[in-house]
Design a protein that fits this description.
It is a single chain. With about 200 residues, this protein is of the alpha+beta class. Helix content is about 30%, strand content about 20%. It has nine helices and seven strands; from the N terminus they run αβααβαβαβαααβββα. The strands form two sheets. Strands 3-1-2-7-4 form a five-stranded antiparallel β-sheet. The chain has a two-stranded antiparallel ribbon with strand order 5-6. A hairpin with a 2-residue loop joins strand 5 (about 145-150) and strand 6 (about 150-155). The radius of gyration is 16 Å and the shape is globular.
Length: about 200
Amino acid sequence: MDNKEKILEIIKTRKIVQLIHFTKKKNINSIIKHGLLSVDELKKRNIDYIFNDLERRDSWKFSISLSITNKNSILLDGFKRRQKLNDNDFVEIRIDPSVIVENICIFCDTNAANHTFESYRQDNDKLNHLKIWPAFDGMFKNIVYRHYNGETGKIKRFKQESNETTCLQAEICLIGNISSDKFINYNELNLLTNG
């Protein structure tokens, strides 16, 4: 079984029916028109957009950040607090999980900006280990390790559903773009554009 087949098998076995990306509501017109694009692609095409994350600490601006099943509410709350915004300023885009079979992805068992992945940012050969099915499967393992200020912390799997990652902040960094026909909630999003 090749990598794509194995990823598809995990999606089916775990009953993963949606990936989540959240963005500022002001970006929706452009996203409906162009699809969901990475920061690098937005700049390349000279498309105006409003940043969610001014820092983008993972430094993978060639990718789109996605959560599995549920949004990363910890990150969203941080954005709202730092930018003095509220829930109404953001919108959730629900995406068909087939996009991770159709594109190369970096599978992170915790937040991609975490120090856990520093060495991967420096070494492309090592980064390749995060692009294959065992890394995807690892997003659901019993214990996930996160690094904080030189210390290692543990997140244990506890009462999560099969389709929920062990760490709420786990994310997929999809390399490429996502066309709007992959949006499960396209009609709802389109209404926000007065379309």
